Amino acid sequence: MSLTAQIHVPRLNKTLTVPTGLFINNEFVPSVDSKELIHAINPATEEVLASVVAASPKDIDVAVAAARHAFKTTWGKNVTGFERSRLINKLADLIERDAQELAELESLNNGKPVKVARDFDIGDSIQCLRYYAGWADKIIGQSLEVDNKSKIAFTRHDPIGVCGQIIPWNYPINMWSWKVAPALAVGCTIVMKPSELTPLTALKLSELVKEAGFPPGVVNTVPSLGPVGGAALSSHPDVDKVAFTGSTITGRKIMEAAAKSNLKKVSLELGGKSPHLIFESADLEQGAFTSVLANKHVLLRVGLIPNWDTVAGILNTIYDKFLEILVSKVKATVVGDGLEEASGGGPVVSKGQYDRVWGYIESGKAEGAVAILGGEKRNSKGYYVDPTIFTNIKPDMRIIFGPVLSVGVFNTEDEAIALANDTSYGLGAGLHSNDANQCMRVSSALEAGTVWVNQYNLLNNNVPFGGKKQSGIGRELGSYALEEYTSVKAVHWNFGEKLDWPL
Questions:
Q1: Residue-by-residue DSSP string for 326-367
Q2: Which of 80, 97, 156, 345 would suit a FRET pair with 303, their CA atoms being 20 to 30 Å apart?
């Protein structure tokens, strides 16, 4: 089969060329033993964009072997931090050059608006690469006093080795950069498995990895079904670390496979049930806007994030006023084909996710929640779920998923904190208040890896991100992410002590 595909886009009056093979050793190759294909779908039209090779376990073996060879010969400890920095910066330059085409491909395969993919996701990914390029020549250990007359100890932060990286479909390019950048900065090699729903931009980025000048085998891309490629990476005896973003259920399986194989290092960014609390002193306009932004599915994003569930909790005395402002903000959001300039949100990514979201919505209705906006299906092509707001919710309802914002009420600060923490998750949380003392009290009490005050869901590449409880292990972004890809070695050096024998 041909290892490239032409995607004709009449709306843009252009044709996009995408690779469809497995990217191993800087070449696009067929599977060694599988004829299975992954069909990339346009969620706005329900049409197949392209079919890519689906990697088998044997293909994973080949990719891991390529990554191991590169780690031992042309990467890892065999190249300086200055050279790693130069190549990562070059990759960032190439992504910036091709930002428009990458955004169009992201929109076609994922559903999110082109302007969002280009200006937010890709723009942030370029900055992420440049941030870690700046770290590449600054990986340092410690010099430790033992005995000034005869001994010293020091630490080295070595690259951990071959890293399996498994990314989701909600931010295909952004999640790629979050994982690739710190791993490359410290000298690791990579076997990347993109989501089977959105494999196209990871393959396109692989072309740029080669163009930037990275040695063969440093970055390998193996589209595959999760139970095949993801499972093979998680249990592979020659993979030193697995990084995964996705559901808590899959995260448990990855941890189990890692433990049963070679006890490889694992970092996990998993599901969340994320509260957003609005107090009486808050700027209600800003609180309403960021409540929409907090529920990433409604504004600026494709319609569904894996297991990032958002509940807005509002103080009873301001509930009605806030709800009026909130509805007006959501109504102003245009949800349509991501290639349309006016679209602020797109369809959900797949038929499976579409059916799942509607199952939750119908479940909420059956359990007594009231949809004051949305909650009705379109009679048209595309996996569209219009922004929906539910009130009259209860903590045990299952509706809090998808382009759905569930709005509850609390009466006191203590009640708000208790409701927010009454979950087995702890990915993100936030509050709006202009009472400084309250901001400190509540942010301290919320049990989440990230807490936003008077904003929501805004991240910075130099600030760590990750979850508590069942929302994950480890951190992405910031200097903390470097620790996920390094192994600390202690060196004890005796330069003067002579032992008597026998003791």
A1: HHHHHHT--B--TTSTT-SB---S-HHHHHHHHHHHHHHHHT
A2: 97
